[in-house]
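lol ok so funny story. i was supposed to be doing the assay writeup but got distracted and ended up predicting the structure for this chain instead. priorities right. anyway since i did it might as well share w the group, maybe its usefull for someone
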Amino acid sequence: MQRLLVVLPVLLLSLTVHEFAHAWAARRLGDDTAMRMGRYTLNPLAHMDPIGTFFLPVFTNVPFGWAKPVPVNPGRFRRGVDLGKGMMFTALAGPASNFLLGIASAIALGVLARVDPSLGAGEDGRGASGIAAAFLFSMIQMNVVLAIFNLLPIPPLDGSRIVDAFLPARFRPGWETFSRYSMFLLLAFVFFGWRLIGGPVNTAINWMIRLASLIA
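and the output, tada:
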């Protein structure tokens, strides 16, 4: 019940902003594919994936999920836009939006704690303030996890687009071979290895909580 009432809304909002950021970045570069397919929107229904958005976060201990990838066609970028760097910019927009959403949530949490002095930033509370604080704290956690996870250089995650943009030509055959089998590595990471990013995740979360404390 807690996952349904807190985790699911947080995940839906975070994933929706993430995918919209991809669509927005692609549109800025001239690609209107997402817009034509109804994905240039903040409506969660357009981005939900039955397994990644519902089953995985609600019924397992995996602390994140995924949405349907926004379609991007680099062939529709404006003339003069480098395809590799354009795809990198489009890919980075997703994790960047999650970091910004986490910071915005930390600021809101600090403001909430200032308005209600009995509520410490990041601590449990009662009533409306407690519910709001739990939601904002979950927003910080979820968005940090999503941002850092998506920066991993494993296809099809956003981090792999950064590798694509800078990878020398002599390494591309090996990278393409790795990409064909990377889904198995990604699934293994999702179910067994996500704690490997615990250090960067905790560092970023603690920094945002300190930001909230400074505001409070």
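The mean pLDDT is 88. Residues 2-215 form one domain.
back to the writeup now i swear
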